[in-house]
Amino acid sequence: MSELKKIREQQNLTQEELAEKSGISVRTIQRIEAGTEPKGYTLKTLAATLGISEKDLLIPEIIIEEDVIEEEIVSIENKEVSNFTLTKIINISSLPFSWLPIANFLPPILIMLFTKERNPIVKQIISLQIFLAVICPIIFMIVAFLKLGKTSVLVTMIVLALINVFIILRNAYEIDNKKCLYFKLNFNLL
Asked: Does the keyword Transmembrane apply (predicted)?
């Protein structure tokens, strides 16, 4: 509802009565109440007739426009990550290959490409798995070159796989509850 209409109704005036008092046509009053911003002579005359300041006819319209802009921003943010179920499936698809770090990012990439779900969370999931695919073999090789024994190499493999499983499951939980990731990188590899 426009400010002019609110003020006119508060003063118990019809459009015709306001037109008579102000000397402004009913059609102009209708246009202003429909959303046209009053300017110049019309603004001054309506403000004087209603006994209000010119700002009172304009300020709330700006507030309404700001509210609309905020709603549009929220809508755009929600569109960026629209399908959280698919996002969670993409995250969990790494689970079968969590024991083989070199391949753990392939299922999420394939699902992303086939479904065209390329929201920021999906990109971050895949970036994290690619990062793990690079880091885990490096850690494994360091332990192997240190020649700490067969047991330490086996334990390292198991620990790295369990860490990856934990990261995947914890992120799935966060996607489900908070629509975000718990573990993520500060950069994006995609």
From this structure: yes
By CB atoms closer than 10 A (0-12, 13-18, 19+), residue 168 is: buried
Q: What is the pLDDT of residue 162?
A: 92
Tell me the pLDDT tens digit for each residue of 97-155: 888 877 888 899 898 889 888 888 888 998 999 998 899 889 988 988 998 888 988 89
Kindly tell me if the per-residue pLDDT of 179 is higher than 50. Answer: yes
* Structural domain count, the chain: 2
- Terminal alpha carbon distance of the chain: 46
Residue 103's domain comprises 81-178
d(CA 124, CA 42): 55
Residue 184 lies in a domain: no
What confidence tens digit (pLDDT) does each residue in 43-93 have? 889 889 888 888 877 755 444 455 555 555 544 444 444 578 888 888 899
* 40 and 102 share one domain: no
57, 10: one domain: yes
Is there a single domain that holds both residue 85 and residue 161? yes
Whether residue 68 sits in one domain with residue 19:
yes
The Cα–Cα gap between 130 and 10 comes to 64
CATH number for the domain harbouring residue 51: 1.10.260.40
Question: How many other β-carbons are positioned within 10 Å of the β-carbon of residue 46?
Answer: 23
Closest CA to 10 of 58, 66, 56: 56
